[in-house]
C-alpha cells in the first residue's frame, strides 16, 4: 500500500475489511461511515441489509481492531478524508461504488498480492477457513459472517484436521485455503501490494 495514495489506501481498506468481516460485495458497496464504530480495540461493522436479511433488520459483525493497526489507522485516516456518507466511493466524483466495482477492485488487489483468478467472494471463504483454522467455533464464524444457517456456512469450509480438534500436522500437500488466507492477509499488510 502506498501511504498518501487515495486509491491505494481505499483499495487496501476495502480488501482488508472485506476479508476480516467477510463482507459480500453488495454489503461493502452499501457501507456508510456511520456503520463503522471503532472503540477500545473493537470494530463494529453494521450491515444494514444482507441478501439473507429479507426483513431488513440488519446485523453487526465485530472484530478485534487496535486503533494503531493497519485497519484501525486506515479507518481513521479515510474517515477524515471522506467526501461522502459512503465508505467506498469513486475517487473522481465521490459516488458510492457499485457491487461490480467493489468486486473488480478486490480482484485486482488480490492479483497484485499474487493471488490469481480470485473473486471478491473468495475473501469470505478464505476468512471463514482462516478463522476455523485458528480454532474459532463454527457458530461464531456463522454469526460473524452473517450466514443464516450452519448449512449455508458448511459449503464454504474445507475439511481439515485442525477443525476436528487435532493439532496442526505437517503435510507435503498444497496449503489449505486458511493458509492462503493468512498469506494473503500478510501480503496486504506487509508488502507493497498496490
TrEMBL record:
Residues 164-174 have a biased composition (Basic and acidic residues). Signal peptide: none annotated. InterPro entries: DNA_brk_join_enz, Integrase-like_cat_sf, Integrase_catalytic. Keywords: DNA recombination. Residues 164-194 are annotated as: Disordered. Residues 1-171 form the Tyr recombinase domain. One of its GO terms (molecular function) is DNA binding. Pfam families: Phage_integrase. It comes from the Eukaryota. GO terms for biological process: DNA integration; DNA recombination. The keyword Ribonucleoprotein does not apply. This is Tyr recombinase domain-containing protein. It comes from Caenorhabditis japonica.
Amino acid at each position: 500500500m502506498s501511504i498518501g495514495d487515495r486509491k491505494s489506501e481505499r483499495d487496501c481498506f476495502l480488501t482488508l475489511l472485506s476479508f476480516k468481516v467477510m463482507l459480500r460485495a453488495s454489503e461493502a458497496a452499501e457501507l456508510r461511515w456511520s456503520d463503522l464504530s471503532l472503540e477500545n480495540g473493537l470494530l463494529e461493522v453494521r450491515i444494514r441489509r444482507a441478501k439473507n436479511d429479507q426483513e431488513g433488520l440488519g446485523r453487526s459483525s465485530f472484530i478485534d481492531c487496535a486503533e494503531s493497526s493497519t485497519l484501525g489507522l486506515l479507518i481513521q485516516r479515510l474517515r477524515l478524508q471522506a467526501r461522502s456518507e459512503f465508505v467506498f466511493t469513486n475517487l473522481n466524483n465521490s459516488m458510492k461504488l457499485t457491487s461490480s466495482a467493489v468486486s473488480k477492485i478486490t480482484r485486482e488487489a488480490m492479483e497484485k498480492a499474487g493471488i490469481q483468478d480470485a473473486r471478491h467472494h473468495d475473501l469470505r471463504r478464505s476468512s471463514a477457513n482462516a478463522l476455523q483454522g485458528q480454532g474459532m467455533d463454527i457458530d461464531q464464524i456463522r454469526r460473524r459472517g452473517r450466514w443464516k444457517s450452519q448449512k449455508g456456512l458448511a459449503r464454504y469450509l474445507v475439511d481439515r484436521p485442525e477443525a476436528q480438534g487435532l493439532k496442526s500436522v505437517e503435510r507435503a500437500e498444497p496449503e489449505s485455503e486458511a493458509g492462503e488466507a493468512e498469506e494473503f492477509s500478510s501480503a496486504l499488510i506487509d508488502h507493497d501490494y498496490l
